[in-house]
Amino acid sequence: MANLYRCIVCALFVLMASFSKANDLSDYPLGAGDLLSITVFGEEDLSLEVRLSDAGTISYPFLGEISTNGLSTGQLSDVIRSKLADGYLVNPSVNVAVIEYRQFFIYGQVEEPGAYPYQPGLTLQKAVALAGGFTERASSDKFFVVTEKQVGPDPAQIDINHPVSPGDTITIEESFF
Fold first, then answer.
1. For residues 173 and 143, what is the distance between their CA atoms, to the nearest angstrom?
2. Residue 67, CB-side half-sphere exposure with 13 Å CA sphere
3. N or C: which end of the chain has fewer CB within 10 A?
4. Is 131 exposed, middle or buried (0-12, 13-18, 19+ CB in 10 A)?
5. In this predicted model, what pLDDT tens digit does every residue of 98-150 receive, in sequence order?
């Protein structure tokens, strides 16, 4: 019975990994603060949960520091797989998943300004809802964002349906009328 269970789990794991790879389900760029689950099938001591450091690296058993900045979960899975295959394991099967995304920040004229965990599909409207909604003094069209990827310090004006990314800093201005 245990062997049958193992075979089913193995088949599901391989199917999920090939489906994800074939369809590029996640091109989310990993960055500092993300919490990852790394699973190496059949190697429990190589499977772990780890939060990316401020430098965007992880410390992995036997392999040392691995840089993850800008990589997707699939790309990181490939990096770990190739490093493990280079003298440690024969044909390792590696799955990387994001358990918790890094935060975005919202302040200004919202009820509860602060840092909130990013969620896929997040828009400014949803971010404002997470922050308790607009205050009575909030502007109806003066919303600004500074992104992680942004080169200069000047914020860009955005609309209410603009997508929010991990690490974004959003400002809701005050209306004077």
1. 6
2. 3
3. C
4. buried
5. 999 999 999 999 999 999 999 889 999 999 999 999 999 999 999 999 998 77
Residue with tokens 């590696």, as numbered in its chain: 94
33, 103 Cβ separation under 8 angstroms: yes
Pairing outcome for strands 35-40 and 94-100: antiparallel
The CA radius of gyration of the chain, in Å to the nearest whole number, is 20
pTM as predicted: 0.72
User: 89-121 as b/e, with b when 16 or more CB fall inside 10 Å?
Assistant: beebbbbbebeebbebbbebbbeebeebebeee
pLDDT of residue 177: 65
